[in-house]
Write a structure and sequence with these properties.
Elements: E1 7-10, H1 16-27, E2 31-34, H2 39-52, E3 57-60, H3 68-82, E4 87-90, H4 105-133, E5 137-142, H5 155-175, E6 180-187, H6 201-208, H7 217-227, E7 239-242, H8 246-249
Length: 254
């Protein structure tokens, strides 16, 4: 029970990678705040966690993870419900594809609001609380291989993910005196409900990933749990790429 008596917030967590992280945190003893924009889907995700683990301690806190007022309310909810905040995983993000020459201001600023603003201000609110507690804590951001290698029609998205990795590096200076470590995961192609909407997704990435398959959500979640555990407290400011070797060779899926 690596996370007994610890409380974790995971944003964008009603399905895919975020949900798997919540499941694994709950099964390892954590109190889990599961956030998603869609209240119905978030509540269903919590019900699914309890259906598979009756000893879980997980609540749904639906809302926009890019909204600063909501972020503060979510942190307050975690503390009022469970007494502390020890782990924050900024998993929420949006991908709005678009050609660079015609990309709209609305799409650009929404990507930045959620991916950058949501991560920055969640880290800020959580770190303020962790500083008060004086017991340290762990922050984890979700980047992408598109922050390392160019992908067609993802200029804004890739830009936001590269910036998240720089944020983690910079926060080492700010947070280390308070025993708060901060790291980033950059997943590669990952099989989720969303990516499987493309019927060719899995076979395409099987062919161009050196390890012969895209990642599973468990691959990403296992990495996440290590980085927010006490076993990784001396790791900070780092980005771990989980992509089956794709960024080493980088063949385009197009």
């Amino acid at each position: 029970m690596l996370f007994q008596n610890k409380t974790a917030i995971v944003t964008g967590a009603a399905q895919g990678i975020g949900l798997e992280i919540c499941k694994q945190l709950a099964s390892n003893g954590a109190n889990v705040i599961l956030n998603d924009l869609d209240e119905t889907v978030a509540n269903k995700a919590v019900a699914d966690i309890y259906a598979n683990n009756e000893k879980a301690n997980c609540i749904s806190v639906p809302g926009d993870a890019g909204n600063v007022s909501f972020i503060k309310q979510m942190v307050d909810k975690a503390v009022s419900k469970f007494g502390s905040l020890d782990i924050v995983i900024a998993n929420a993000g949006i991908t709005l594809f678009g050609d660079f020459f015609t990309y709209t201001t609305e799409s650009f600023f929404r990507v930045m609001e959620v991916n950058l603003g949501g991560t920055f201000f969640l880290a800020q609110a959580a770190a303020i609380q962790m500083k008060k507690q004086a017991a340290g804590g762990s922050l984890l951001f979700m980047s992408s291989v598109t922050g390392h290698q160019a992908h067609k029609n993802l200029a804004a998205y890739g830009m936001s993910k590269a910036a998240i990795e720089m944020l983690a590096k910079n926060l080492v200076i700010e947070l280390s005196p308070y025993k708060i470590n901060v790291n980033t995961i950059a997943p590669g192609a990952t099989v989720t409900e969303r990516t499987l909407e493309d019927p060719s997704y899995q076979t395409t990435w099987e062919k161009i990933t050196p390890m012969g398959r895209p990642a599973s959500v468990s691959d990403i979640a296992h990495t996440a749990l290590f980085l927010v555990s006490d076993n990784a407290k001396h790791i900070t400011g780092q980005t771990v790429i989980v992509d089956g070797g794709w960024t080493s060779v980088s063949p385009s899926p197009y």
